[in-house]
Amino acid sequence: NAGVMQNPRHLVRRRGQEARLRCSPVKGHSHVYWYRQLPEEGLKFMVYLQKENIIDESGMPKERFSAEFPKEGPSILRIQQVVRGDSAAYFCASSPTETHSYEQYFGPGTRLTVT
Amino acid sequence: AQRVTQPEKLLSVFKGAPVELKCNYSYSGSPELFWYVQYSRQRLQLLLRHISRESIKGFTADLNKGETSFHLKKPFAQEEDSAMYYCALPNAGGTSYGKLTFGQGTILTVHP
């Protein structure tokens, strides 16, 4: 029973490039959450998605960041024109339903380094 | 706005000693609270939630509404308890209940 998968595990981008982070939830889970962990800080909520819908993006920076969870395929967190401050660990989590949404299953994270 | 505070970034104890990881929250209403743990080289996982009132791996946590605290306790720490611990609070409501607010985490080190 595969858990939440994230790839790549490590991503290096130069300033101005695009970063694409992928998340495959636990099979059967239709709710996906993205969190960011900046150095020396805790996890901060970014966005909550269901299939083809963004439910809550209150934690997403207003510019350059976008997320999707298509009907088929993984959820994607996209960061355009990356800057050094985007360097962080990005974690994805999934849950089967919203009722039990607090029991979230986490992926191993993608560590983004912007040079 | 809801908030979770873990005042200790680092906590060191010796094996067999009691351990308490502190968590304070600000929230209007009846909160649900959780402890997540991340062992070395493993992913973040749910340790326990207060509504279940269970003991997991010897850990317990009691919700104290008067002190707005949800401290995690274990009477006799083991070396395998060394990990990063996060206290978390689900969203207060609104349109989505999935959002978790995390504390900054406490790194627990249990020395032999």
Describe the protein.
The complex is a heterodimer of chains A (115) and B (112). Helices cover 0% and strands 49% of the residues of chain A. Chain A contains no helices and eleven strands. Chain A is globular. In chain A, the strands form two sheets. In chain A, strands 2, 4, 5, 6, 9, 10 and 11 form a seven-stranded mixed sheet that branches. Chain B is mainly beta and 112 residues long. Chain B has strands at 3-5, 10-14, 19-21, 24-26, 34-38, 45-49, 60-61, 72-74, 83-90, 100-102, 106-111. The A-B interface holds A 3-4, 31, 33, 35, 41-45, 48, 55-56, 58-59, 91, 93, 95, 98, 101-109 and B 6, 32, 34, 36, 43-46, 49, 86, 90-91, 94-105.
Largest contact between chains: A-B, 28 and 24 residues
Kindly report how far apart the N and C termini of chain B lie.
41 Å
Gyration radius over CA of chain A = 13 Å
Shape of chain A: globular
Share of residues in helices of chain A: under 10%
Query: What percent of residues of chain B adopt helix (DSSP H or I)?
Result: under 10%
* Stretches with pLDDT under 50, minimum 5 residues of chain B: none
Write the layout of secondary structure elements.
The complex is a heterodimer of chains A (115) and B (112).
Chain A: E1 5-7, E2 10-13, E3 19-24, E4 31-37, E5 43-50, E6 53-56, E7 65-68, E8 75-79, E9 88-95, E10 105-106, E11 110-114
Parallel strand pairs in A: 2-11
Antiparallel strand pairs in A: 1-3, 3-8, 4-5, 4-9, 5-6, 7-8, 9-10, 9-11
Chain B: E1 3-5, E2 10-14, E3 19-21, E4 24-26, E5 34-38, E6 45-49, E7 60-61, E8 72-74, E9 83-90, E10 100-102, E11 106-111
